[in-house]
From TrEMBL:
This is DNA-binding transcriptional LysR family regulator. Gene3D superfamilies: 3.40.190.290, Winged helix-like DNA-binding domain superfamily/Winged helix DNA-binding domain. Keywords: DNA-binding, Transcription, Transcription regulation. The keyword Transcription regulation applies. It comes from Nocardia neocaledoniensis.
Length: 314
């Protein structure tokens, strides 16, 4: 289908409608950000194209002729259709150039996010993804402030006031250097003993710290830390030096245990320290689009992951 010869463009029709709504060429010029003479010239060109006098021009302003009023009414649905067309094009741009900003705690970013994002990339190859890494408290703050659409945190409790979904439980291990006295101890360590011992702790705001603290404070306030360190790598290096025991994710320490550079200490009464990996979001903006896809993929991947843990022989 081709347009009839002489069909005007939408911009000049929009100018004519503005003149009708505002009552003067000058007001229409200000609305469209062009000069008044330019409006007059474009309306004049439209009149010549249509072969109709659309405006009565006078010293006090311009008024629509009967033909001008009729053309304005015919133009309104055409302009509405043009607006709907451009809204649809904008939506296509948003979908074509969709983006997702995610924040995750360090353990999740290192050991889980790569597989989740790889699955999302296969589902949405056009998606631009941004990942920032911080501790769980900082991730939670970003979700509250809506500076990230989706967060992944670790810890025993869901952050208050946020929507969340538990994805998987992560087991923690008590570890010491091979020459630490606990490495050759036959009797298992109780939680009370663990709480009374200066440990290597992550910084405040860490999901690991929150989990361990919650488990130990049942038996009283935990002992003053032997050291507070800002990364799992620093914790492992300090533990290897024999400074103090540490409680860390089995995901992080597995290679150290296999290599024998750290030794796992048994907990009494078959106690298992675990923390939960959660997806979190602002309740007013629950996951949709790519964010919902990522939560769904992470849930399915973790549900399908083997539950048998690779425990090194002691």
């Amino acid at each position: 289908m081709s347009l009839p010869p002489g069909t005007p463009d939408l911009e000049v029709l929009d100018l004519l409608v503005s003149v009708a709504e505002l009552g003067s060429l000058g007001a229409a010029a200000r609305r469209h950000g062009i000069s008044q003479p330019a409006v007059g010239m474009r309306i004049g060109a439209l009149e010549r194209r249509l072969g109709l006098r659309l405006l009565d021009r006078g010293p006090t302003g311009s008024a629509l002729t009967d033909a001008g009023s009729a053309v304005v009414e015919l133009a309104r649905p055409v302009l509405a259709a043009g607006g709907a067309l451009m809204d649809g094009v904008s939506d296509l741009h948003r979908r074509t150039h969709a983006s997702l900003r995610v924040m995750a705690s360090k353990t999740i970013a290192d050991h889980r996010i790569p597989q989740w994002l790889s699955a999302l990339r296969k589902l949405r190859p056009e998606l631009a993804m941004e990942l920032d890494v911080a501790n769980s408290q900082q991730v939670t703050a970003a979700i509250r402030d809506r500076t990230a659409e989706l967060g992944f945190v670790e810890g025993p409790h869901s952050p208050a006031g946020l929507g969340s979904r538990v994805l998987v439980a992560d087991e923690l291990a008590v570890v010491v250097a091979p020459d630490h006295p606990w490495a050759t101890r036959r009797r298992a360590i109780t939680l009370r003993e663990l709480g009374e011992t200066p440990l290597l702790w992550r910084e405040k705001g860490s999901g690991t710290r929150e989990t361990v603290w919650s488990a130990l404070e049942i038996h009283g306030t935990p002992a003053r830390p032997a050291a507070e360190l800002g990364s799992a790598a620093a914790i492992l290096a300090t533990a290897r030096s024999g400074t103090a025991p540490a409680v860390v994710s089995r995901l992080i320490v597995a290679h150290e245990l296999r290599a024998g550079t750290l030794h796992e200490v048994s907990l009494a009464d078959s106690v298992t320290l675990t923390r939960k990996f959660r997806a979190i979001w602002h309740r007013r903006t629950p996951p949709s689009g790519p964010a919902a896809d990522l939560v769904g993929l992470a849930t399915r991947i973790e549900a399908a992951r083997p539950t048998r843990r690779d425990r090194p022989a002691r």
